[in-house]
Amino acid sequence: MRRPDQTEADPTVARELAELEAALRGGSADPALNDLVREVRAQRAEPGEAFRRELDERVRAGFPRRRSALGAGLRARARALRGTLGTRRMLLPAMGSAAALLLAVVVGASLLPSGGGSEETTTGLAAPQDGGAKREAGGGSAAQAPEETSGVATAPGTTDVAPGRRDRRVEREAQLTLSAAPDQIGDLADDVIAVTDRIGGIVVSSSVQSRGGGGASFELRVPSARLREALGLYSKLAHVESRTENAQDVTQAFLTIQERLDELTAERRGLLRQLATADTRNQTESLRARLRLANGEIASLRTQLNRARERTDFARVAVAIEPGTESAAGGSGTWTPGDAVQTARRIFEVLGAAAVLALAIIAPLALLALLAAGSLRIARRRRREQALSSSS
Amino acid sequence: MDVRWRRSRGVTETLAVAIPPDTAEEAFDFEALYRASRDDLYAYVASLLRDRAAAEDVTAQAFERAFRRRGSFSRRRGEPRAWLFGIARNAALDELRRRGRTAALDVDPEDVEAQAAPEDGAELALRRATVRTALAGLELRERELVALKFFGGLSNGEVARVIGVSESNAGTLIHRTLKKLREACHATP
Q1: Sign of CA dihedral A200, A205, A211, A215
Q2: Closest CA to B114 of B130, B125, B104, B103
C-alpha cells in the first residue's frame, strides 16, 4: 500500500498539479481545466458590501473592543499585562525561576542547620515516674528532645509538664558557655556576678583564671522564677557558645516526704497524748523511746524537705567563660575580613543549595507544563479535525 | 602619564539614528494583508460553514485574532497569508464544533446564477449548476482544499501549513480532490 507522500514522485500527479497551478494562473494548456477553474471560482461566495464596510472600518480603527464599560478597566489591565508578558515572553521563565529560587531559598534556609557554632538546647522536664533521670541536652536529636526542634528554649517558668497538678516542684539547671577575648574575661566575670546579684541569685563558687588563654567558671543559684530572665541577661553579656537547660519534676518525691512528715507529726502528737496518760514506768519508757525515734525521723524529713524546697526554689546555673576570638566576643563589634569570607562562603553554600532545590522544583514542573500544553494542543487539534469530519 | 577622560567639547549637533527592532524580520503590513485577503478568506470560511452570517462573524473574528496576535507571527512558520488562513480555519472549525452540525447551504444560488449574464445562455447556467452540484458532493475536507486552492490561491506548501500536513501530502490530497471533482462534473448529467 502506497502512502500519500509517495505519490509525489508520480510524474502524472506532478504534471497534473502543475497544470492546475497554470490553470489557476489562467494559462493552462488544458481548456477543460481552465473551464473548471473558472466555473469553480464562479461559485465563490462574496462578502456583502455592508460587511466589507464594517470590517474595513474595524480594521482602520484597530479592532476596538465592543464591550461594556464595566469590565473595560479590568480588561485593559489584563490586556496590558498580557501585552507585557506577551511581548516579553523571555521574562516568563525568568520570573518562574525567580519564584522557584525564592521558594528554594526559604526552604533551604529552614533546612540548613543554624550556624555560628553556638548551641542552644532545652530539655523538658523528666518526671521521676518517667524514668527520673535527667536528659542531657547537648547536641541532642529532635527525637530525644522535641523542644529543640524549634531552636527556642522553653520558658522554665511556663512549661506545663504536669497539667492539673498545682504547686509543682521542679528542679531546674542550666549550663551556659560564653566566649570572650582573653583581655575581656575579667570584666565579663564581674558582669556575671553583677547580674547574679541583680536578680537575687547566689554565687556558690567562682573561678577566674588569668594565665594561659584565661577563662572563668561560676556555680550560681538563681531564683527559679527568674531563671529565664537570668539566662537572657547572661546571654547578652557575650557571645554564647552553648546553652543547655534541664528540668526535672520532683513534685511526687516532694509530696511523699511531706505526707510522711505529716504522718509522723500526727503519730508524735498521739504518742504525747498517750504519754500524758501513761500509768506505769514501762509504758512511759516505751512511749519516750518511740517519741525519740519519731522526732529523729521528723527532723530528717524536715531537712530533706528543706533541701528539696531549696533545690526547686533556686535553679542551679553553671556559667563558663572561654577565651575566644575578638570577633566572637559580644560587644566588640569588629568585622574582620575572615568573618566576611566566612559569611560569603555561607551565602554561597545557601545559594548553591537553593539553586539545586530550585532546579529540582522547576524541572518537573516545566516538564509537566510542557506535557500538559502538548496534550491540550493535540486534543484541541483532534476535536477540530473531528468537527471537520463529522460535518462532511 | 596623566590620562584623563573628558567630556566632548564643541559638539553642536546630535545625529540620532533609529535602531531597527530586532523583530523587523517578523513584522508585516497587516492592512496590506487584510486588503489582499479579505474576500478570499471570506470565501474560504463560507465554503466551510456554508452559512453567510456565520462566515461573516468568523471572518471578522479571524482578522481580529490575527491583528491581536500579529506580534507573535514568525516568518519561520510560513507566509502571513497562510498564517491568516490557519487562524480562520481554527475559528471556523470551532464554530462547526459549537454548532455540531452543518448549516444548510446559504450561499445564495440566485447570486451565482446572476453572475452569468443573460447572453451567456443556458449552456453556461447548466455548466455552473453542474459544478455547483459536484462541489456539493465533495466531502468537507475536499471542499476545504478546493476553497484554499481556488478561492484562497494558496500554494501547495501554504495549504499544507494551513491544514497541518506535509507539502507532498497536501499535493496528493489536492490532486485526488481535483480528480474527484472532474469526475463528478463529467458524471453529472
Answers
A1: negative
A2: B125
Which of A1, A17, A44 is most worth mutating to test chain B (most B CB atoms within 10 A of its CB)? Answer: A44
Longest pairwise C-alpha distance within chain B: 102
User: Does the predicted interface ipTM exceed a cut of 0.85?
Assistant: no
What pLDDT sits at residue A90? Answer: 52
The pLDDT tens digits for A67-87 are 555 555 566 566 556 555 554
Cell of A106: 526559604
Query: Which one of A3, A40, A82 makes the best mutation probe of the B interface by having the most chain B beta carbons within 10 Å?
Result: A40
Q: How many CB atoms lie within 10 A of CB B1?
A: 2
pLDDT category of residue A215 using cuts at 50, 70 and 90:
confident
Q: What is the dihedral of CA A294, A300, A302, A303, to 10 degrees?
A: 170
Give the contacts of B112 (CB within 8 A, at least 6 positions apart).
A42, A43, B128, B132
CB A246 within 8 A of CB A134: yes
Return the C-alpha cell found at A170: 521542679
What end-to-end distance do the CA atoms of chain B give, in Å? 102
Q: What is the pTM of this model?
A: 0.49
Cβ atoms of A387 and B96 within 8 Å: the answer is yes
The conformation of residue A213, written as its DSSP 8-state character, comes to T
Q: Which of A166-170, A231-235, A310-314 has the lowest mean pLDDT?
A: A166-170
User: How do A314-323 and A170-180 pair as beta strands?
Assistant: parallel
CA distance B161 to chain A (A): 14
Where do the structural domains in chain B lie, given as residue ranges? 25-187
